[in-house]
Design goal:
137 residues; alpha+beta; Nuclear Transport Factor 2, Chain: A; five-stranded mixed β-sheet
Length: 137
Amino acid sequence: MSEDLKAIGHQLAELWNTGNLSIADEIFANDFVNHDPSRLEVTDIEGYKKYLTETRSGMPDFKVDIEDMVAEEEKLASRYTVSGTFQNDFFGIPATGKKATWTGINIYRFASGKIVEAWWNKDTLTMLQQLGVIPTE
């Protein structure tokens, strides 16, 4: 079971790396619930897809590298590093042309082989500072 969950974790990285939304339809349950303190408006699968599309639009070279995954029973924890260049408007913020690298850890809960819930903890402050949106001092 844990290897199956890790395989889905790799599909999730592929979804973010390619923007291929058909992957989302394969790995997320219809009643998926998202818990992201930096994106409170993203609560369901349609909001998640829109968030992913907008992120990749602002950073067309957006890339997720999985560093670690731990699976147990119906949960998967994934530690990752993300990088991208702020090439286009990003959630209403004008592009800076700067590149950023940041880290995060997500926990996913599964039911019937699909992701039904996700909790995010990502270093948004570092990302925004590196992109030149927030001053570093």
